[in-house]
Amino acid sequence: MEQFHQTFFEESFEGLDLMESALLALDPGAVDAETINSIFRAAHSIKGGSATFGFSEIAGFTHLLETLLDEMRDGRRPVTRVATDLLLRAVDSLRALVNAAQAGGSLDAIDISDVQTALQAQLADSGDPGAVTAAPQPVPSSGWHISFQPHADILRTGNDPLRILWELAGLGTLSVQTDLSGLPGWEEFDPETCYLGWRIELRGAVAGAALEEAFAWVADESDLDIRPLGTSLPATTPDTDDGSVVAGELIAERRRADRRQAPDRRSAPPSGDTTSIRVSTGKIDALINMVGELVITQSMLGEIGDQLVQGGANGLIEKLRDGLTELERNTRELQESVMRIRMLPISFAFNRLPRLIRDLGTQLGTQLGKQVELRMSGEHTELDKTVMEKISDPLVHLVRNALDHGIETPAVRIAAGKSPAGTLHLNAFHQGGNILIEIIDDGNGLDRQKILRKAVERGVISEAEAAAMPAEKVEDLIFQPGFSTADVVSDVSGRGVGMDVVRRNIQELGGSVEVRSQEGRGSRFTIRLPLTLAILDGQLVRVGDQIYIIPLVSIIESLQARKEYINAMAGSAEVYRLRDDYLPVLRLYEIFNIQADANELTDGLLVVVEGDGQKAGVFVDELLAQQQVVIKSLESNYRRVDGISGATILGDGSVALIMDVPGLIRMTSIQVRKPARKTA
Question: How far apart are CA 247 and CA 227, in angstroms?
Fold first, then answer.
C-alpha cells in the first residue's frame, strides 16, 4: 500500500503545482474556460485519490475547493482577484496537508482552519451581486434506475465495482439485481475478468452530481445508463433518442474529455519534495540500446581474447584496437544516456518564482506601490536534478533582492523616463559544458560610490584601493560577508542572509556567480553551473608521486613562475605578482605533507585558480591531461578532508583526490593587501 501512497503523493504534488501555475495565469479580466477546467480536474483527482486512500481531511478540504471551482467553470460565480487569491491560499493549505500526510509532520491547524472558513464563507456568498443565480438542478425525489455493466477487464484497471455499490448504498435505499448471464463455465472462468452486471434501484433525494462522482472512475470501463425512477431502463442497449436523462453517457463523455485534455505528465511541473524522477520512455529506450551495444562489444572483445589465448595473433591487434575504440564510444554514450535521466528542465526551478513574485509584488505594491512584470526564457534548458534542488534557494534570494532593491517605484521610474512597471527577466541557456542562469532587472542598478563608501567603512578595502578599483571589482564587493548597502532592512529581503551566502551555496555546487550593473539601467546576475554534480571536467596535476585534480571551472591560467615576481608578506605567507594582482601561493606538498620534486617556485608551475572571489596560485610539479572524472564521495567512503571535495579512480586504477579550491583558500586564511618585503 505504501508504494500506492507514494504515487498518490507524487501525483498530488504535480496537481498542486499545476493548480498554482494555472491560477497565476488566470486573468480575471479575460477568463479562459480551459484554465479553470484544468484547475478543477487537478483538484478533482486529488480529492478522488485522497478519498480512496483514506486521507479524509485532504478529501474534505479539497471538496470545498472543488465546489468553488465548479461554480466558476459553470459560470455561476465570477472569477475575481479576491477569489483567485483565496484559491492560491487554499492550494498552499492543501499542499501542507499532503506534506503532513506524507511525512507525518505537524500542521498549522489555525491557518488551515482560517482558509477553510474563508472557502465556506465564499461559497455561502453568491459572488457577484448582479449575477443571476443559476437555477439548481432538479433532484428527483424518488430516486434512480441504474444499469451498470462493467467491461470484462475492469478489475485489471484497479477498479472495484463492489466499492461503487457500497458508495451508492450510502446515498439512499439500494436494491440490486445481479445479472449472471455472462458467467462462463468453470473451465473457462478467469478470476481477473468481470462477468457480472447490475440493475440498481436507488431510492432517495439523490442529486445527479453524486451519481456522477460515484461512477467518475469507471465511466470509460463500463456500459452505464442512469434514469430517474418512473422512466424504464431499456432491456439491452440504452436508447438516447427518447429525450430522457442519460446521466451515464454524460459522465462517460466528461471523463473522456478530461482524459483528452489532461496535460502530458512527462512535462508536468515538479513535486514539492521529490525522491524519484519520472523519465521519458525515449531516454529509457536510448539507455537500453546502449546497453545492447555494450554487450555486443563485450562479446567481440571476449572472442578476440580467446583467440589470443589460443596463440593466433595475426590481425588480432588491429581488431583489439577497433574493439577498444568501440568500447570507449559505447561507454561514453552510455554515460551520457544515464546522465540524461537525471536531467530536468530548469522550469522545475523557475515555476516557483511566479508565485513568489506575485506575493512579493502584492506586498511591495502595498508598501511602496511597485509594479513588476516577469519574463522567462530558456525554461526547457535541462539541468541535473540535484543541482536543480540546490540552486532554488540562491535563485529565490537573488529574485527577492532584485524586487526589493533593484526595481524602483512607479514615480521614480516615470521620473527617470521608464515605464511605471519594472521588468524582471529570468533566462537560462547552455554555454560550453555549463548552464548559465541570468536574473536581469531594469531597475536602478548598483550605486558604486555607495558600495565603495560602505566597503571602506567596514575595513574591507582601504581608501587608496577604493580610488583605484575598477568597476567590475566594485560590483564584486557585494559578495563580501555581511556586506549590505540597504539603508533599511525590509520584510522582503535583508533577513540576515547576504550575498556571500548565495555565492558560497553556488560555489558548493561547483559554480560561480557574477554581477554586472549599470547605474539607472539595471543589473544582470549570471550564475554559471556545471550540468551535473556526478562528473566534472578536471585538470590533472602531479605533486611528487601524487595526482590531484583541479576543477577546470576554477582554473584561470597556468604559468611558469618568474623569480622577480615572487614576494613574501609580513609573516610567512608568499605572494606572486601577476600583472596588477598579488596572488597567495598554495604549496600543495606543504598542505598535504608529501614529498615534491620541486621546492622552488621557479622549478615548478603555478596554476592560477579562483574561489570565494579570491584568486590564488597553486604550486605543482607538472600539468598532466585534462579529462572528465566521476566524483566519488570521500566523506562517505573515508572521512572529510579539508581542502578536498572528493576522489576519483583514474584509468590505471589509482585514486586521485579532487581539490576543493574555495576550501583550500579558506584553509590558508591568507589576506592579501600588499607585499611587505621582496625575497628575490
Answer: 7
Instruction: From 539, 541, 546, 667, select the one nearest 604 (Cα to Cα).
Output: 541
Residue 328, CA distances (Å) to 120, 294, 433, 440 in order:
64, 10, 20, 42
Measure the CA–CA gap between 327 and 87, rounded to whole angstroms.
56
- SS3 assignment, position 244: coil
Determine the angle formed by the axes of helices 81-103 and 109-124, rounding to 10 degrees. 140
| DSSP class per residue in 366-404 | HHH---EEEEEE-TT-EEEHHHHHHHHHHHHHHHHHIII
- The closest alpha carbon to 609, from 621, 619, 597, belongs to 619
Distance of alpha carbon 288 from alpha carbon 242, whole angstroms: 56
Query: What is the identity of the amino acid at 120?
Result: Q
In 3-state terms, what secondary structure has residue 427? strand
Q: What DSSP string runs through 166-179?
A: HHHHTTSEEEEEEE
Q: With the C-alpha atoms ordered 208, 209, 211, 216, is the resulting torsion angle positive or negative?
A: positive
Q: Which pLDDT does position 488 carry in this prediction?
A: 54
Please state the rounded mean pLDDT for residues 84-101.
Answer: 88
Enter the C-alpha cell of residue 46.
Answer: 486529488
Torsion angle (degrees, nearest 10) of CA 188, 192, 194, 195: 10
Higher pLDDT, 669 or 371: 371
Of 595, 573, 577, 602, the C-alpha closest to 665 is 573
- What phi and psi, each to the nearest 5 degrees, are found at residue 437? -120, 125
Q: What percent of the chain has pLDDT over 70?
A: 82
Q: Parallel, antiparallel, or unpaired for β 614-620 and 581-587?
A: parallel
User: Partners of 657 in the beta sheet?
Assistant: 548, 647
The confidence band for 368, taking pLDDT boundaries of 50, 70 and 90, is low
Residues for the chain: how many in total? 680
Q: How many CB atoms lie within 10 A of CB 304?
A: 17
Q: What is the pLDDT of residues 17-44, one digit of tens each?
A: 888 888 888 877 777 778 888 888 888 8
What's the order of all strands across the beta sheet hosting 522-530?
A: 372-377, 422-431, 434-441, 522-530, 512-518
- Which cell numbers in the block locate residue 647? 576522489
pTM above 0.85, yes or no: no
Contact 201, 145 (CB under 8 A): yes
Higher pLDDT, 621 or 323: 621
Task: Give pLDDT, residue 630.
Answer: 79
Beta bridge partners of 526: 438, 514
Cell 541535473 maps to which residue?
Answer: 384
Give 385 or 438, the one with higher predicted confidence.
Answer: 438
Q: How far apart are CA 9 and CA 194, in angstroms?
A: 30
Here the cell at position 199 is 440493475
Give the number of other CB atoms < 10 A from CB of residue 220.
16
Beta bridge partners of 623: 541
The Cα–Cα gap between 8 and 194 comes to 26
- Compute how many other C-beta atoms are within 10 angstroms of the C-beta atom of residue 287: 18
- Whether residue 533 is predicted with pLDDT greater than 80 in this model: the reply is no
Q: What distance in Å separates the CA atoms of residue 634 and residue 656, rounded to the nearest whole number?
A: 11
Which strand (E) or helix (H) includes residue 105? Answer: none
Give yes or no for a contact between 531 and 435, defined as CB atoms under 8 angstroms apart.
yes
Give the residue among 415, 339, 412, 348 at the shortest CA–CA distance from 380: 348
pLDDT tens track for 171-217:
788 888 888 888 888 888 888 888 889 988 888 877 777 777 778 77
